Amino acid sequence: VIIVDRQVDLLSVLATQKTYEGLISEIFTITNSHCDLDSEIVAVGEDRNKKLPPKVKYPLNSDDDTFRDLRDLPISHVGRALQ
Question: How many CB atoms lie within 10 A of CB 77?
Fold first, then answer.
């Protein structure tokens, strides 16, 4: 175990994760493979007219083909993979 005092290592606090899943985790906070999202983000088509709760639990696991393919990619490669 290596313990580094923050007075010595000031830059590691500024480091961010560089994978698709890592950035989702930092922005929306993944908890138990679910993400709490605003219902406006995930509502599409007919769902926009329905009364939805303010937050929706969105599963992030290998059942979602897009998430499975992108989760470990560096964020710089995600655009090409989606194209």
Answer: 13
Residue type, 65: D
Residues in the chain: 83
Could you count the other beta carbons within 10 Å of the beta carbon of residue 35? 20
Q: Which residues pair with 56 in a beta bridge?
A: 37
- What is the residue-level pLDDT of the chain in tens, covering all 83 positions? 887 776 777 777 677 788 999 888 888 888 898 998 887 777 666 556 677 778 888 889 889 898 999 999 998 899 999 88
Torsion over CA: 61, 43, 20, 33 (sign): negative
Query: Which of 47, 27, 44 shows the shortest CA–CA distance to 35?
Result: 27
CA neighbor of 78 nearest in space, from 17, 20, 27, 22:
20
pLDDT, tens digit, 9 for 90 and up, residues 4-23 = 776 777 777 677 788 999 88
